Amino acid sequence: MSDYCDLAPGHPFHGPYHDHEYGFPVAGDDALFERLALEINQAGLSWLTVLKKREAFRRAFEGFAIERVAAYGEAERARLLADAGIIRNRRKVDAVIHNASVILELQETHGSFHAWLDHHHPLPHEEWVRRFRRTFRFTGPEIVGEFLMSTGYLPGAHRDDCPVQARILAASPPWTRR
């Protein structure tokens, strides 16, 4: 996303995300779940829309606490679909709730979502897409690619001449440890 390195600096929403999150390794399962949920909700929309709604998403999904979201039933679905602060798309809401349950299963089998990702790293993008499609809902090639790039599992978040790239390399994201 090389043009992101030109667009983001100084922007009130893109700037902080670009400078402090995009491409940096993410270890905590709740933080990984949040990133996956945000990427799912971005489908068909601009990333700026998602970033502007990020705090509302955090409130609506209770800080992306995996166990809490996995336990959501019809009342919580209805609450989410009525929440004008988030993207009210039934398929996306259902996918986020379902994927929380999947992450709980991955925590049982692998210790954590992070460990599951590490277990399968490195894979080429196409293999990641197949694995995600077999495991999660609403995870096509773009969603998977952006999720993995944004969390440090795939390269390409920043251009080599972007000042943030040096900080990312110093953080030793998984893609540098092939």
TrEMBL record:
Show the Pfam families listed in the entry.
Adenine_glyco
According to the UniProt entry, its GO molecular function terms are:
DNA-3-methyladenine glycosylase activity; metal ion binding
Which residues are recorded as binding Zn(2+)?
A: 5, 18
Q: Which domain of life is it from?
A: Bacteria
Which keywords does UniProt give here? Metal-binding, Zinc
Coiled-coil ranges from the UniProt annotation: none
Q: Which SUPFAM superfamilies match?
A: DNA-glycosylase
Q: Biological process GO terms, please?
A: base-excision repair
Stored InterPro entries = Adenine_glyco (IPR005019), DNA-3mA_glycosylase (IPR052891), DNA_glycosylase (IPR011257)
Q: What is this protein called?
A: DNA-3-methyladenine glycosylase I
* Organism phylogeny: Bacteria, Pseudomonadati, Pseudomonadota, Gammaproteobacteria, Oceanospirillales
